Amino acid sequence: MLSREGHRVREILAGHPELELAVLFGSQARGTAGPASDLDLAVSAGRPLNTDERMSLIAELASVTGRSIDLVDLARVGEPLLGQIVTGGVQLAGEREAFGRLMSRHLFEQADFLPLRERILAERRRAWIGD
C-alpha cells in the first residue's frame, strides 16, 4: 500500500508529462523509511534529463515531502543500481510497458555485467590469497 507521501509524489509526477516512467525504490519502497530517510526516485523521460530539469524536479519533490531527494535518471543508470530499482521498486507513474522495457534492459545488462563482476572478484581473491 502506498503511503500518503507516495501519493503526494505521484501527484507531482502527474504534472510532468515528459516523464515516461517513475519508480520509487530504497527504504521508502520497502516501507522501512525513518524520519530522516531520503526519497529515492528513478525517472525516465525517454532521453537524459538536463541539469535544470533534474534540479527543478528535485526542488519540487523536496518542498512537498520535506525529504532530501536522490533522483536517478534511468537514461544514465546501469548495473547494479538498475537491478535494485527493478527488483525492489514501486512504479509510481508510467505505463506497464515502460516498466517492462526497463526490466528487459536490466536482464540484458545483467547478462553483460555479471561475468565482468565475477572476473573482478576472482582477480581480487587471487590477489588477496596470493594465488
From TrEMBL:
<dbReference type="Pfam" id="PF18765">
    <property type="entry name" value="Polbeta"/>
</dbReference>
<keyword id="KW-0808">Transferase</keyword>
<feature type="domain" description="Polymerase beta nucleotidyltransferase">
    <location>
        <begin position="9"/>
        <end position="94"/>
    </location>
</feature>
<dbReference type="InterPro" id="IPR041633">
    <property type="entry name" value="Polbeta"/>
</dbReference>
<dbReference type="GO" id="GO:0016740">
    <property type="term" value="F:transferase activity"/>
</dbReference>
<dbReference type="InterPro" id="IPR052930">
    <property type="entry name" value="TA_antitoxin_MntA"/>
</dbReference>
<dbReference type="InterPro" id="IPR043519">
    <property type="entry name" value="NT_sf"/>
</dbReference>
<protein>
    <submittedName>
        <fullName>Nucleotidyltransferase domain-containing protein</fullName>
    </submittedName>
</protein>
